[in-house]
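Quick start: what a row looks like.
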Amino acid sequence: MPVVFLFGVKAKGNSWEVTVRVNEAGQKIKEVPLILLGMGRVGSALLQQILFTREALQREAGIRFTIVGLADSTGALLGRGGLTDFLLTEAQQAKAAGRSIAGLEGALSLREIDSHLQPGSLLIDATASAKTVSLLKEALAARCGIVLANKLPLAGPWAEAKSLFAHPLLRYEATVGAGLPIISTLRTLIATGDRITSIAGVLSGTLAYLCAQLMRGTPYSVALAQARALGYTEPDLREDLSGRDVVRKALILARTTGWPLDEGDITVEPLYPTELATLSVDGFLSAASTLDENYAHRVRGARSRGRVLRYVARVAPTGGGAVEVEEVEKESALGALQGLENSVSFHTERYASYPLVVSGPGAGPQVTAAGVLGDTIELAKRIERKEELG
């Protein structure tokens, strides 16, 4: 007979008391309610990983995630006792078929999510929308934890974003480098008293792939078509080629370090000229061949100097930063990258002669979802210890 677990949070004086139940084997189980915003590739992969690892997490850590909310941009499925696996599967199948959550039976308005925010809950933002900021701040005010895959709330104007960086119940590892431990490494350096002097990195798997193909002699237009066919790009390739997503990641790294940079403090080199910005996607792809010789010339120049091209972001405490195509040494951490790999080099007082480098696969829904899930587990454990709720 299945064991039913119950969860409750109630006020006790000026603090909050988390109710923990015990199963038939005498094991203490803490139910952690989750609300997941976003059912795109990352959100869907995350939902699968949560369900797949649920029993192991309960057995090994005494924590069980209960999904009490699931939302896309059209509507939400909500249930205080948790959504059934059947309903979660139905939602996944609907999204895979191109349908929306608003079309499912029992779907509610997004405004109803507010009523399900309670201390001890975790809100996961796997969208790519700046419109979630107000809900995130409401959740933090309600003593919920927040986990972000969404970069936009952290990369907006510093005046609006700084309160998020200052909050102890917010995690955002997957916003830079997908599942790579980049943010956690940076936080450890800072927490142990090291001083960051500069950060450099290849922060886009798509543009890493493009540069690698260029260095192999593939024409620019052909490399773009290959990246698109492999699913490495946004539907409009210029979203990747503009460099704006790399700028957002650079801002997140800088702000985590304590450098309050804004977008205007970082110069950016797009990988296409402004005259191609107004074309349709098909028109842009047709016109891309006009850039083949320009990039072939840059490749020849880099090779003649024993270097390779990489799309690099650099930030420092003074002078802001830059995001641009660079020639780097082939044997360097950035020059040795292959395929979709990302790499970040932290130059610090301790790592002055040789930087501390974090490298690995930096793109893809599965590794990004794994980064989000890791943050979610870590934050659930922290809230369980009531370090922030007491």
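That is the whole record. The domain at 8-178+367-384 is CATH 3.40.50.720 (Rossmann fold). Confidence is low (pLDDT under 50) at residues 1-19.
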